[in-house]
Amino acid sequence: MNAATETDRALVDRVAKGDRAAVRLLFMRHHARIYRFVARQTGSEMMADDIANEVFLELWKQAPGFEGRSEVSTWLLGIARFKALSMLRKKKEDWIDDDDAAQVPDAADTPEVVTMKEDKAAALRRFVDALAEEHRTVIDLAYYHGQSVSEIGEVLGIPVATVKTRMFYARKKLGEALKAAGYDRGWP
Amino acid sequence: MSAAEKMSRRDEMETLLPFYLNGSLEGAELEAVEEWLATDPAALAALGEAEAEFSGTAAANEAIRPPADALSRFTRALDAEAGPVRAPGQSWLAKVFGRVTAMPAGVAWAAAAALLALVIVQSFEQLGGRGNNFEVAGTQDDLAKLPFVLVKFKPDAKMADIATFLGQNGLKIAGGPTADGVFHLTIPASTAADYDKLVGLIAAQPFAEAVVQGRKPADGG
């Protein structure tokens, strides 16, 4: 047994007993992903820095009540999501305005001459970034954070059917964007 | 199967592909995707597209670099938030030792070790043992030179199990517990290999919560 193999849940148990080394270990394991998740939610790395810190302070406070019904990573992402939305509302930021975020490149604002110079990977990365927030988030949670359908539902507070619907449209948007850029993948 | 139904099934499969790739799919949905991949010529191409999305998403996320000093700033924030070290949930053993650790530092560990010996002997005898067969490191040992390891026992650890294990392996309690419940055990090893073997054995015990290596013997000693 050592720190590297101790499970997240065991570490949360230690945090619940007041073990600060355990919360620091969880911080080292999960901070980068939480930071990135919030940065992509808010569009602000400064906000991500503040919120990621708050997430782990919240972990410290809430650990005694953690019942282990979800993975620790899912729990932390849920806290991060809640805090990001709260801060955005409080500051009346408009970074996640759907109309703004929904600007998946189309023929008008992504001239083929630009996209054709990119390789497909770079184009995909750009298109993922340009997805509407609600679509990009399910893409991020599935592809980068390894979350299941039900876990994404838990993080976002939405039904699993909605997760699937969002995933469907997210991938459809990516397909359309790729097609517009000259990369026809045959679906949708 | 009509074209509409086929499209509907493909939509469903395309929706599930990201979860197939991240390994979270299970049950009927996993079987459906695997069956699709095995039977539809378009499926493998679709899987390749999903893999490209996977890579693109990872790259987009990894491009965001958290600040290098995040942990140190968090540690300061945690200390500010938490204040003095929180009293852990205490087992009966921890409560007993809590009284000992209130003693002057110079005598605390010796008293703690002696108390542990008493507790272990009592527990061992209650269980029908013939007496303790482990030792608490005494002043005759030059503790400063002995190989040692730091061990934290689980709150629900049974003292009889610990006593038996210590005795069987020639381990001695040289100090502790600290405020965090850590004991200092001397290791009867003359080589680094013996030391590693014993430390590994301690770490493998169900009553060991955490093990931190201390001084190791020089090889050939």
Report what the structure shows.
- The complex is a heterodimer of chains A (188) and B (221).
- By secondary structure, chain A is mainly α.
- Chain A has helices at 8-16, 20-42, 45-62, 72-91, 98-101, 112-115, 120-130, 133-144, 149-156, 160-180.
- Chain A starts with 7 loop residues before the first helix and ends in an 8-residue tail after the last helix.
- Chain A has 2 domains: 8-91, Rna Polymerase Sigma Factor, Chain: A; 98-180, Arc Repressor Mutant, subunit A, CATH 1.10.10.
- Mean pLDDT of chain A is 85; it is low at 95-109.
- Chain B is an alpha+beta fold.
- Chain B has 2 domains: 3-62; 92-213, no CATH class.
- Helix content of chain B is 55%, strand content 10%.
- Chain B has 8 helices and 5 strands; from the N terminus they run ααααααββαββαβ.
- Chain B has helices at residues 3-21, 27-39, 41-62, 70-82, 92-100, 105-126, 159-168, 192-204; strands at 135-136, 148-153, 172-175, 182-186, 208-213.
- A 5-stranded mixed β-sheet of chain B has the order 1-3-4-2-5.
- In chain B, a hairpin with a 6-residue loop joins strand 3 (172-175) and strand 4.
- In chain B, helix 1 (3-21) packs across helix 2 (27-39) and helix 2 packs across helix 3 (41-62).
- The relative contact order of chain B is 0.09.
- Mean pLDDT of chain B is 73; it is low at 86-90, 92-112 and 117-136.
- Chains A and B meet through helix 2, helix 3, helix 7, helix 8 and helix 10 of A and helix 1, helix 3, helix 4 and strand 5 of B.
